[in-house]
């Protein structure tokens, strides 16, 4: 698992092709169910439509990738 530690927090970053805030909001709500207590956001202004997931403990990234793909989008860990 690749991650960046910021103030003892694990931050996973993904490149996606999610293009609208409405779609991002739907994905975030679903991710919040499978990764409780995580801070999740999209940066749709970034050229890679970045998805960031931040949590204070290690977590499995595979469910994140699978969920985003199940919504019809690409998702690649950076």
Q: Layout of SSEs?
A:
Layout: E1 4-6, E2 9-16, H1 21-34, E3 39-43, E4 50-55, H2 62-70, E5 75-77
Antiparallel strand pairs: 1-2, 2-4, 2-5, 3-4
Outline the biggest β-sheet.
5 strands, antiparallel
Structural class determined from secondary elements: alpha+beta
The poorly predicted ranges are none
Radius of gyration (Å) = 11 Å
H/E element order: EEHEEHE
Q: Give the N-terminus to C-terminus distance in angstroms.
A: 11 Å
A few lines on this structure:
The protein is 29% helix and 32% strand.
Task: Give a written overview of the molecule.
By secondary structure, the protein is an alpha+beta fold. It has helices spanning 21-34, 62-70; strands spanning 4-6, 9-16, 39-43, 50-55, 75-77. Strands 1, 2, 3, 4 and 5 form a five-stranded antiparallel β-sheet that branches. α1 (21-34) packs across α2 (62-70). The longest helix has 14 residues, at 21-34. It is globular.
């Amino acid at each position: 698992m690749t991650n960046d530690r910021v103030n003892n927090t694990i931050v996973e970053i993904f490149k996606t092709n999610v293009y609208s805030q409405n779609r991002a909001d739907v994905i975030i709500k679903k991710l919040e169910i499978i990764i409780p207590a995580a801070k999740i956001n999209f940066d749709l202004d970034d050229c890679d439509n970045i998805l960031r997931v931040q949590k204070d403990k290690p977590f499995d990234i595979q469910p994140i990738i699978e969920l985003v793909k199940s919504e019809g989008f690409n998702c690649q860990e950076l």
